[in-house]
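Bumping with the actual sequence this time:
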Amino acid sequence: MSEHINPLITPFFADQVGSLLRSDKLKAARLQKQNNEITAEQLIKIQREETRLHVEQQKLAGLTAITDGEYSRAWWHFDFLEGLKGVEGYTPEVPLNFKGTKPKTHSVKITDRISFDSNHPFLGDFVFLNSLLQPNQHVAKQTIPSPNMLFLRGKNVAECYQNNDGLFINDLIQTYQDAIQAFYDKGCRYLQLDDTSWASFFSVDGVNSLKEQGYDTNKLLAIFEYLLNESIKNKPQDMLVTMHICRGNFRSTYFGSGGYEAAEETIFGRLNVDGLFLEFDDERSGGFEPLRHVNRTDLFIVLGLVTSKTPDIEPKDYIKSRIVEATKYIPLEQLRLSPQCGFASTEEGNILSEQQQWNKLKHVVEIANEVWG
């Protein structure tokens, strides 16, 4: 076996989206830090102790791609974005409306020209994760929010970007190009961009919301395509960059519904990512028909058929039948399997136990081994 696993040629038929449930010890430590009962250094020490334990659990589950569980984050997106220069967190008046519950009220705003900070804390988190893995056995997977997230969420644009969308877009692209290169320089060969912004196109409510914000949906689709492709165009040849498209994941609830049809030609036919992680765990996500627009043999599609929202174990035969159904539109060798999302997009986590989480991941690995051998 070669010294390093090359994720571009190694078929991770069983994969994961990234976030994992925070342990009771980690939750307690984060609360202690908020109450100034422990220092930031003490919290980092506990985070890394827990990361070490849960990396071993991922290995036991049979996964090849290993994450840090996003244990240093309160949110799957805001922590990274707030680590960029020119971006700050703030408390808006109205939180996002998830079905049946509301998360903490938080968002980000742009206060100055944006750029990537070479001291971004996520780089240190990645280096620690990578140090726990044998390069000929596992690959460290880094997750960060897509550039589209800052474009859509950074509504309070700094004065330097007023009436200058071109400058904003160019700076955002440069920021992500620099971030991708920085992770690569630290040893990252598998990067995933997480993105809930596409879900706005999937439903009437989402489209109406975009229009109320003053967006032309066709122009916004083109901007998203451009932002993503330009952000990753300089990625090194031996770096895998994928994208996870999500409809929301907070305490086992969601905020979006609808199939991929409204953006299918862009998502499946015009994005230059190496792979797409897609939600297909229930009727909210629609059918597999949009996969007919995949026009590349080197694009792999990760079917999120196992839900991370509940502890129920889906029957293997059912999952296998869904995979077969997807092969009507794309060859089996281009398909992969994973949960539809992470288990804890925010530090609160979904409503299931850690053991149930590990059972889910083992289930994904077992099915993948039986389907792809």
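The tokens above came from a reply further down the thread. The longest helix spans residues 40-61.
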